[in-house]
């Protein structure tokens, strides 16, 4: 169920949101297209299966155990995630 559930969940969330796809920005896909939602769900699924869990689980369980590696991983997630989010927000604004 996990293998099919994550991509299908991304697609269903898009369908139930009632949003219309944004105008094409020249990249071939809009920011909210069904294909983009499916690809994003698949990438999350692939990364979580490859790593043996999701980043949130690794951060929470590592920090709950007071593991130095857990804290370092959490810092790395935020150090990479915040600039990426700002870059993508600027690109799609």
From TrEMBL:
InterPro entries: Sulf_transp_TsuA/YedE (IPR007272). The chain crosses the membrane at residues 68-88. Keywords: Cell inner membrane, Cell membrane, Membrane, Transmembrane, Transmembrane helix, Transport. It comes from the Bacteria. It is found in: Cell inner membrane. The keyword Transport applies. Belongs to the TsuA/YedE (TC 9.B.102) family. This is Uncharacterized protein.
């Amino acid at each position: 169920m996990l293998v099919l559930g994550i991509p299908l969940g991304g697609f269903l969330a898009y369908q139930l949101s009632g949003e219309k796809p944004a105008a094409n920005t020249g990249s071939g896909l809009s920011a909210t297209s069904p294909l983009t939602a499916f690809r994003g769900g698949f990438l999350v699924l692939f990364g979580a299966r490859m790593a043996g869990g999701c980043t949130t689980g690794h951060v929470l369980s590592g920090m709950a155990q007071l593991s130095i590696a857990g804290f370092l991983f959490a810092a790395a997630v935020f150090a990479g995630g915040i600039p990426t989010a700002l870059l993508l927000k600027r690109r799609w604004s």
